[in-house]
Design brief:
The chain has 509 residues and is mainly beta. It has three domains: 111 residues, no CATH class; 146 residues, no CATH class; 138 residues, Tick-borne Encephalitis virus Glycoprotein, domain 1 (Sandwich), CATH 2.60.98. The protein is built from two helices and 43 strands. Strands 5, 6, 9, 10, 11, 12, 35, 36, 37, 38 and 41 form an eleven-stranded antiparallel β-sheet that branches. Strands 14, 15, 16, 17, 19, 20 and 30 form a seven-stranded antiparallel β-sheet that branches. Strand 36 and strand 37 form a beta hairpin. The chain is rod-shaped and about 165 Å long. The relative contact order is 0.19. The mean pLDDT is 92.
């Protein structure tokens, strides 16, 4: 008879423990990443009555708590406004390290950057993963730190110009475009292009300069358009040699301004000097009807081919005693259908470079090339592009499904700066709850298996989201009712057994 009391007491204890588990689940219904507990019971066998066949005369002694397991099913996701929040869609745990380097595991992805640039959880524990350097991940899993993350500068190697050059522009008039380009240190430079209308139909000379300094060389100097205003050919011009009369005048190499004006030259240019040095008259204009020549200054002859006031050719004179002659041979040219133009600039003063050995490519044709036209409408810039940029500071972050943290920088560039890793275990029920949404590895759980999200059975990440508690309130309320009824029933067993014992005691009266 006494065993019924013990069975009833065990039932009370079991129901009380079940209520403890239920209460904890309900209390954590809003805890991020919380995994609900579930209690399991087992019967207690402690007495066998003699004389019965095997198994037919056994009386139990009540109930015991066999286990309280953690339920690792996924909770629902809640959208947040924090870009560094992440939820795991599938299997796996985030890895976080405390101040002593001890590793814990959690499903709570409430992360933020602390004052040291570490990605940490609400406990201040550091999220583990790979840091990226020059686009490549570190070889070892470590604290994710973004304190020194910058976008390195990239020197401009190609540029392109989208513009219309007015077909009705007068000969000799110019139009200019300017765009910002970058050297290998990320410093800004102004790349300017001057377009000059030549006497030939639909032809413009071009001169490229960097910070106002003309290019050392450019593979082509002229753009020629067809009757529909589209670019048809490009030309390279080489000025003819300058020759004096050998006694009165000795000329050096002529300096040509690269604007393509010599495209119009039909013959050699001949100049005659008066008795006084520097008094030049034109004997043959070479086809430039508005050409003028200024007096030599400091041993130079300056020639304005179109009469616009610009110096198109400068001829240095090593000897000028007056009364001589000067001849500039006809320029030579080469042409081709549109192709890219290579432009080489003088060496930069700070040791930085631009392009490849200070040579950049003007992207005239091919993918990404912008169109230059020659329509009878106002000269205008449509668009300007180049592939260089300055260094940039980190402005914002986003997390991809594969755990890669992508940074957006002040220079407009985006790049991967780190990657979060996940861990999983052979026996999840062996993990030990450590409080603060953390789990610890045990012998039963086995060692952590580490990989990136989406690989080897790991779940993927959902950014701007948090995984909520997987507690099911409806189920907990049902469990609460059954636990209460069980407790009441076991209490009734004890009161009934007490009445029976009282009756037994009263027999002697």
């Amino acid at each position: 008879m006494g065993s019924a009391l013990w069975a009833g007491i065990s039932g009370l204890n079991a129901s009380s423990t079940e209520m403890d588990v239920i209460a904890n689940n309900v209390a954590n219904v809003n805890t991020v990443g919380y995994k609900a507990g579930k209690i399991y019971f087992a019967d207690v066998l402690s007495q066998s009555l003699s004389g019965g066949s095997a198994g037919s005369m056994q009386i139990g002694r009540g109930v015991s708590v066999a286990a309280v397991d953690t339920q690792f099913s996924s909770g629902s996701f809640e959208t947040t406004g924090n870009a560094t929040d992440a939820a795991i869609d599938g299997d796996g745990f985030f890895m976080v390290n405390d101040q002593n380097g001890a590793t814990y595991y959690t499903r709570a992805g409430s992360f933020h950057l602390d004052s040291s640039g570490d990605l940490v959880d609400t406990n201040g524990y550091k999220v583990q993963g790979y840091n990226f350097l020059n686009g490549l991940p570190s070889s070892n899993v470590t604290d994710i730190n973004l304190s020194n993350v910058q976008s390195a500068p990239t020197a401009t190697t190609t540029f392109s110009v989208g513009a219309n050059l007015d077909a009705e522009t007068n000969t000799g008039e110019t139009f200019s475009t300017t765009q910002t380009v970058y050297d290998s240190l990320g410093a800004k430079h102004n790349l300017g292009i001057t377009y000059q209308k030549t006497e030939a139909n639909n032809t413009w000379g071009i001169q490229v300069a960097l910070d106002g300094v003309p290019a050392k060389s450019q593979t082509y100097d002229d753009l020629q358009f067809d009757s529909t205003g589209n670019l048809a050919k490009i030309y390279s011009m080489t000025a003819g040699a300058a020759t004096g009369d050998g006694t009165k005048v000795v000329a050096g190499t002529p300096v040509f301004n690269n604007l393509g004006a010599l495209y119009d030259q039909s013959a050699a240019i001949s100049l005659t000097e008066g008795a006084a040095p520097g008094t030049w008259t034109i004997a043959n204009n070479g086809g430039f009807t508005n050409m003028s020549v200024s007096a030599s200054v400091a041993g130079k002859v300056n020639i304005d081919l179109y009469g616009t006031g610009n110096t198109d050719i400068t001829v240095p004179l090593t000897t000028d005693s007056g009364g001589g002659t000067l001849t500039i041979a006809k320029a030579t040219s080469a042409n081709t259908t549109p192709t890219n133009i290579s432009v080489t600039f003088p060496t930069l003063s700070d040791g930085a470079t631009i392009g490849a050995a200070n040579t950049v490519s003007w992207n005239v044709v091919g993918t990404g090339a912008l169109a230059i036209t020659d329509y009878a409408s106002t000269s205008v810039i449509d668009s300007l592009t180049n592939d260089g940029y300055a260094s940039g500071l980190l402005k914002s972050l986003s997390i991809g499904t594969d755990g890669k943290i992508n940074g957006f920088f002040s220079n407009g560039q985006t790049t991967d700066v780190a990657q979060i890793v996940l861990a999983n275990f052979g026996d999840l029920t062996g993990l030990k709850k450590m409080g603060s949404n953390l789990f610890g590895e045990t012998v039963t759980s086995g060692p952590a298996i580490v990989n990136v999200p989406g690989a080897s059975g790991m779940g993927t990440l959902t950014s701007n989201s948090l995984e909520m508690s997987n507690t099911d309130i409806a189920t907990e309320f049902i469990n609460m009712i059954t636990a209460q009824k069980s407790y009441s029933a076991n209490a009734r067993v004890i009161t009934t057994e007490d009445a029976m014992l009282t009756e037994l005691i009263n027999i002697k009266r």
